[in-house]
Amino acid sequence: MPWNMHDYPVSMKNLDPLIRKKAIDIANALLIDGYPDERAIPIAISQAEKWCKDASRDEKKAFQQTANPQKNDSHEKNKNAQKLMNADILVKYEDDHWSVISDGADQASGTFENKAPAIERAKEIAKNKQSSLKIYKQDGTIQQTYNYIDS
Q1: Which candidate, 61, 3, 63, 60, places its Cα nearest to that of 32?
Q2: Which of 6, 10, 26, 68 is the most buried (most CB within 10 A)?
Q3: Could you report the per-residue pLDDT of 102-112, keeping only the tens digit for each?
């Protein structure tokens, strides 16, 4: 069920209005990509909070000035997002940092100086996506695997 700024999930009620707007926009796009409500909502909230934390003042201002999300907004179906929806989450060392990336993705969803925060972020994503998490050692060998499917 798509949402707008007047009709949205209860879990978005206490969000800052800008974060709520971003979460609704993300959640509506996830619904178009085939995510069920119960998966789209926590993913959208998490991604909106991360966006707000990382976005520049200009990015936030520009997004604030865009039209509010509507239930009938057209979101172009992203075939790559569909493929990545259930992809494993990987924590691996590359280019002098730890990356959290969906298997098959072109870009990491996060990079970290230390492994521990990378693992924590990867666990959060894997739980939200209900996918598996594969943690690699610095030498590229597999260290540990977690399965968050149907958990």
Answers
A1: 3
A2: 26
A3: 888 777 878 89
